[in-house]
Structures are given as structure tokens and as C-alpha cells.
Write a structure and sequence with these properties.
By secondary structure, this protein is an alpha+beta fold. The chain contains four helices and nine strands.
Length: about 160
């Protein structure tokens, strides 16, 4: 009961901050998040976890870049804001600020930061993942299953110098 009450209070607070009650579209968007799936891939040495929405389109990708040792997060549905140079990604209770490449020719928003063992530990322990850029938000999405996260993080560990 306490969890339900906390969820209700959080929902009401979010609606108040946004200036409206949750709409039917908000409810449908939350439902689609529950239907999303993670795909793991190695792409040219980069290790990529890609969240695919129920509609089959990518929602976000999180990659360890082999050549640079960086963590890169891409959210294709976000619109770039010239005055906003930080993309935050949350792994459970922890969040990381990433520098946004405002000149990237790729649609959406991409942020990166040097990958560290601390960041990998945050990723390994995450139950939910979300991204925030200005007022644009995606998540909270369930994290990939533990076995996939461990394989992904283990591969990423090899990119840290």
C-alpha cells in the first residue's frame, strides 16, 4: 500500500510540474515502455545496448566506444537544443552527465563521457534506465536482464584504459 501511495504522489507531483493531469497519451506512452526490448550487439568493436520500442524503432542506445574508451548515449527521439550541452542518463539511483555533440549530423541527441569502472558498476546495478535532456525525458525503462548487462559490461571493461 505504501508503494502504491508513493507512486500516486509522484505521479501527481509530476503532473503538477507539467501543468496538467496525465493524459491518455501519457498512459499509452508508459504502456509502450513496458513493451520495449533491449538488443545487444558488437558494431565495429563498439559494444552497443539498443532499446527498441514496441513500434520497432530505436528509443536509445548505450555504447562503449572501442577506439576512444568512451560511453556514448544516443536518443534519436530528442530534439537538439543549441543552449543545452548536457545529456543525463540515469541508472537506477545514479545519474551521469554526458557532453552533447551539438554539431553531430546524426538526428537526435548524442552525449559521451570517458568510461570508468565506477560507471560500469552503476550500469551493472541498475534496475531502471532513463535519459533527460533539457525538458525531454525517456524512461524509466527496465534495464536489460542481468546476464545481458554482465556480458555487455564485461565487453565494455575491455575498452577502459
Amino acid at each position: 500500500m505504501r508503494s502504491l501511495l508513493s507512486l500516486l504522489i509522484a505521479t501527481m507531483a509530476l503532473a503538477a510540474c507539467q501543468g496538467h493531469a496525465p493524459s491518455e497519451g501519457d498512459v499509452r506512452a508508459a504502456s509502450r515502455q513496458a513493451e520495449s526490448r533491449w538488443e545487444m550487439a558488437v558494431d565495429g568493436g563498439d559494444v552497443v545496448a539498443r532499446l527498441i520500442g514496441a513500434d520497432g524503432l530505436p528509443v536509445m542506445s548505450i555504447a562503449c566506444l572501442a577506439g576512444t574508451g568512451e560511453l556514448s548515449v544516443h536518443v534519436p527521439g530528442f530534439t537538439r537544443i543549441p543552449s543545452e550541452d548536457r545529456l543525463s542518463i540515469g541508472f537506477g539511483d545514479d545519474s551521469i552527465a554526458l557532453a552533447v555533440d551539438l554539431r553531430s549530423p546524426v538526428p537526435g541527441v548524442t552525449g559521451s563521457q570517458t568510461l570508468s569502472r565506477d560507471i560500469l558498476a552503476q550500469i551493472r546495478s541498475a534496475s531502471m534506465i532513463g535519459a533527460l535532456y533539457g525538458t525531454q525525458f525517456t524512461g524509466l525503462h527496465p534495464a536489460p536482464d542481468a546476464a545481458d548487462v554482465e556480458r555487455w559490461a564485461g565487453s565494455c571493461a575491455g575498452t577502459i584504459e
